[in-house]
């Protein structure tokens, strides 16, 4: 599937209708899919879906870990990943948004590839560099006013809400999603683990470990406390999506939110959406602090001077 050729049409046939230029995938002219890849199945869904593939390759690693690694590397290459860091979702809409589990898949496949000390660190580092682009795409596109609560749309959970979460909302309205925010906190934890692993052999990664530790804490704080209670509902002891009205327009450059002019409405539906923030947990073994002194020093400073975030 070569998008540019599809948009231009076959030169031996009549030109395609003009509306194709404004249809699906029209901004993915760099995408050139002509590789062997895992697909959902060979009959009903014979196309790639990156977030499905993220799980498939973990199972595949038990049989052929080299092929699993190649599949993950493939979708991080420049003829699939967009220059802004967006990964293609699936064929009918490359620009759709799925849960950011690709980094988790890279980490799991790496861990399954061999015993400690015998794994492909160079491959992990190569993936980490591209994952930084994808993480930045999420932060810049799905948390545009920088508050730590993320949007994302349906995020792989078909029919989970009372309305289509990918549909446009009225101007000035934002859907702050418990699952999107939880996934991004989880993304931080996985990137932290990868940075710590790479930091064992290259101290340059210690700064990145600190970055993802602090970013995780900031997102977790927003989920629990932003605007008073974040996305948490004390009465129900559950996390909910919420509609925020009075939000700045998408094109605004402000990085702050005036909560006095906004109103929020929790969507009190008990579903898997409200459990996903619980995925964002992790343990940092004390041995890592001995091996990464700069990371340890920064972490201690952060916990001392940002006590309100470290509770």
What report would you give on this structure?
With 311 residues, the protein is mainly alpha-helical. It is built from ten helices and five strands; from the N terminus they run αααααβααββββααα. It has a three-stranded antiparallel beta sheet. α2 (50-60) packs parallel to α4 (102-112), α4 (102-112) packs antiparallel against α5 (121-142) and α6 runs antiparallel to α7 (206-225). The N and C termini lie far apart (50 Å). Mean pLDDT is 91; it is low at 251-257.
Q: Could you provide a short overview of the structure?
A:
It is built from ten helices and five strands. The chain is mainly α. The longest helix has 22 residues.
Low-confidence segments, given as residue ranges, are 251-257
| SSE pattern | HHHHHEHHEEEEHHH
Summing up helix and strand content along with how strands pair, one would put the structural category as mainly alpha
Radius of gyration over C-alpha positions, nearest whole angstrom: 21 Å
Major β-sheet annotation = 3 strands, antiparallel
Please give the share of residues in helix.
Answer: 40-55%
Say how many strands there are: 5
The amount of beta strand, in percent, is 5-15%
Q: What is the residue-mean pLDDT, rounded to a whole number?
A: 91
End-to-end distance, in Å? 50 Å
Shape: globular
Strand order of the largest sheet: 1-4-5
What's the tally of helices?
10
